[in-house]
Amino acid sequence: MLTLYSYWRSSAAYRVRIALNLKGLAYRQVPVHLVKDGGQQHASDYLALNPQGLVPLLVDEEGGGVHISQSLAILEYLDEVFPVPALLPVEPPQRALVRALALHIACDVHPLNNLRVLQYLSGELGVDDEAKNAWYLHWVRNGLAAVEQGLAVFGGRLSLGQRPGYLEACLIPQLYNARRFACDLSAYPRLLDMEARCQDLEAFQQAAPEVQPDAQ
Amino acid sequence: MLTLYSYWRSSAAYRVRIALNLKGLAYRQVPVHLVKDGGQQHASDYLALNPQGLVPLLVDEEGGGVHISQSLAILEYLDEVFPVPALLPVEPPQRALVRALALHIACDVHPLNNLRVLQYLSGELGVDDEAKNAWYLHWVRNGLAAVEQGLAVFGGRLSLGQRPGYLEACLIPQLYNARRFACDLSAYPRLLDMEARCQDLEAFQQAAPEVQPDAQ
């Protein structure tokens, strides 16, 4: 049994839902509300499961009950333990290119723009909404422009040729997040094309924030 | 031939130097100065190599000339192409635990505190030095406290038992960075113990910022 601690709007949790769906793995979802009760991820019962105090967290009972935090660690684990269908290409250079693009999103775009950081900007630093929005757009545009260039190697195909995988599981949630902040995406035609193909697939449709049990 | 585009003080480049040394791989180092000339990582000749405009970048001539950005993508590549000695444990649950701790540093601590973000806080947002320092310490303490708890599973050993690997390659540069910002580390005895063992090893000594050819 796989259990995913998740929040409907978390980009990182969304990545894992896509990956689980792409592999056709059944899982139980436990919602962790990132805002209610001062953030349920800070509650002692959740911190006992995941001291990092973030979502997602995957618990694999068959895997000795291992508790895995960090969305990309979960994607790597799923690809090792449930290898078919694969999320990553076969050859190391291609795997590296996919991971580098996914990590650019996961390390250099998303963490600067997630809820806890935006809360710190407003709360601790007294940054007004306009400057906070400019901060958001600065990092997301910067990051997406680099990913757009990086996608050139795929020549209009998905990261696994006809199939999406690791890269798309990271990209689609980032685009969803960018739209929430009214970021104009028209400068990134390769991203939009990749997104459109993914959105046709059930694995992505069923992972979307709005259709999660805890969506509001 | 392996070529590493690096900056002596970059935590992410430092991770890769450690990994290359742990594997005993020879490499040529090309310095990219992150401050001089308005940041050489923004120059068009560097962006042509790495559109992400960040260090490190690894070029592997034997691997078809692949250009790999993102330190963790490089570590994964090195472990796939030069598997002995390994950087990651063998079993998926243990690999996942190591990756989750490394990713917590690489995604949720370091990107908030690297040079470009601190420059944005001062320059664009007009944040004063005291508040900028408080920002730094907030994220680093938060992150290191979680890693400290996460290390409990190793029972005082290194991530590969008697040997360091992927986890230590991420942790030691983060501790170096924290010291630069005068962060008191005494609350993290497991981190300090792990660091002390690593600092005894040539692979770490020779990766240290101060002994790099571009150190100032």
From TrEMBL, chains A, B:
Q: Name one GO biological process term.
A: glutathione metabolic process
Q: Could you tell me which residue ranges the GST N-terminal domain spans?
A: 1-86
Cellular compartments per GO CC: cytoplasm
Reported EC number(s) for this entry are 5.2.1.4
The source's domain of life comes to Bacteria
Q: Which family would the database say this protein is a member of?
A: Belongs to the GST superfamily. Zeta family.
The record's annotation in PANTHER family points to: GLUTATHIONE S-TRANSFERASE YFCF (PTHR42673:SF21), MALEYLACETOACETATE ISOMERASE (PTHR42673)
NCBIfam families from the UniProt entry = maiA
What's the protein name? Answer: Maleylpyruvate isomerase
The species this protein was found in:
Zestomonas carbonaria
Q: Which gene encodes it?
A: nagL
